[in-house]
Prior knowledge:
The relative contact order is 0.07. Helix 11 (274-285) crosses helix 12 and helix 11 packs across helix 15. The chain has helices at residues 9-14, 32-44, 79-98, 102-113, 131-144, 165-181, 191-204, 218-223, 234-243, 251-267, 274-285, 295-302, 308-326, 336-347, 355-366, 372-391, 399-403, 406-410, 414-421, 431-440, 449-464, 494-500, 512-518, 523-531, 536-541, 549-566, and strands at 5-7, 17-20, 51-60, 71-77, 127-128, 205-212, 474-478, 507-511. The model is unreliable at 225-229 (pLDDT under 50). It is globular, with a radius of gyration of 30 Å. The strands form 2 sheets. The chain has a 6-stranded mixed β-sheet with strand order 1-6-3-4-2-5. It has a two-stranded antiparallel ribbon with strand order 7-8. By secondary structure, it is an alpha/beta fold.
Amino acid sequence: MKRPDITTPQALFAASARYKAPVFQRFYVWGKEELEALEDDIDTADPAIGQFLGAIVLKDLGRPAGPTSPSTYLLIDGQQRLTTLYLLLLNMATIAYNHGHKDGAEFIWQNYLVETKSPQYRGWPKLVPTLQDRHTFYEILKSALPDFDWDTTADPEDKKPRSSRKLIDQWNRLTQYLEEATGVATGALDQQSFDKILTTVQEHLRIIDITLEAQDDANATFSRLNAKGVPLELADLVRNEVFSKFTPNETAKADKFYLKYWQPFEKSIPDGSISAFFPVYAYIALHGKVTKAAAFGALQKAWKSKSPAAVLSDLQRYSPFFAALTEYTEPPTVSKAVNAQVERFSRMPRTRVTWPFIIQALRAVEQRLLDETHALRSLRIVESFLVRRALVGREPTGLHAVFKTLWDKTKGVPDEVRKSIVTRTILSPGDEELRAFLKKERSDSRVILNFVLAEYERAIIKANKYDPPPHTVATIEHVLPQNLTEEWAKTFTQNEHEKFVGLLGNLVPLSETQNKSVKDQPWEQKSKRFIGSNFKTTQEIAPSANWSAAQINKRTDKLISWMTETWPELSAI
């Protein structure tokens, strides 16, 4: 490692150099809080002593594009900070250009944003983010200064890019900050304010530059570092661990593996869920003998002698089912009946503590290690268990200990599953307990309610051979409104209102727009509006002549009967 140097954004960006995020880096994650801290550093920087921003860690790769190309540095740590500074300078160039100061914009562009010293490489951006962010980053560059000659071909974009919302939001925040700070937001550009900010960013911000030498392990360094204020996610640690298996001389091989295999794997899991996958995988791979906090360390040990390809292959045994449970897409390796069960689980409130068992059961069916009939019974047992507990307000507390080892104990055999998930402290409500609870207690605060009413809607549609269920997102409508109006008080006393307003029979699905429009209307008006609802469940009650306590009790009984048939007692499955 070379001796650390104190440097400035001016020195970093003015050099004939490019700063490139390696494949194991996380995406851009800085948000409002981190930007406000940087803005405060800029606004309060003392020209005499400067303002310290922290450290960046680089690895010098030399000039990979040829002897006259700019030097390339892997941006091991400090990507968030350096990307934000680059976008800030780009934003200042944009403001200058848009307000008639083209020479000022050209100065920033030539000196800090692109390579200009080597004509062959002119226009190459001096900062190259992770592949995941690159498409959005390039779009920002070209839309900010469309008349300038950007050349983004040296580091190609993702062929199937996802928009990086974090980058877009930060660009918009930077625009707002600089337009307010330079007077643009309220009138003409204040050149003095503009120059002060530019001088501060160029000269008064201080950064410690730590540059690794060829023999230094970039991955090991990365895993020991945290970006300022934003902890590394589990997905970042796992990605780094996998790519640390490539030697420092295998950069090209690592890039190829990332592009061809690792990135498609990450993309196969819905946005924002990749870090949640690894604890579930760890419980499966390590037979439940690990805590969430210890998952990464345990995986490191388990993967010690495995190649990147072997690690990825094992992850992909389970990731398609995790993805389907998170945001349903049909796994093609299991039957229509099994897919229907997966789809129902995906619409339920997420109880990921059950997923190690569910995923292993699905994997066993896929591999023909578990009879499909047995698998479906076991999965129905789990579904009924979860729904019944949720309806009576029992939280999933304590389920983690049961489900992370449930597969090893039962291998998916239904009778064994039924015996193992019910313990001395973790019970499944029987029909009488469920009925007594739902006839007395409010159901409108239950997280499971939307799923239950959606299933009832589907049951009505199936029984009557109606068109498929609507895509309209349902909200919960209290037919007897939560506000006891003068009109409704003619039918319900205050005590009756408190008793019946939250009962199951008083709750129907409505679109958000219609829900807002009917609000506290009397029954005569509501019933007419319900006829035109998108939901058959709601249309079903519209013909009633009135809406009274008797009607609510009757409908509550009807729904309870349907529920106990749909999610029977575990002993009946």
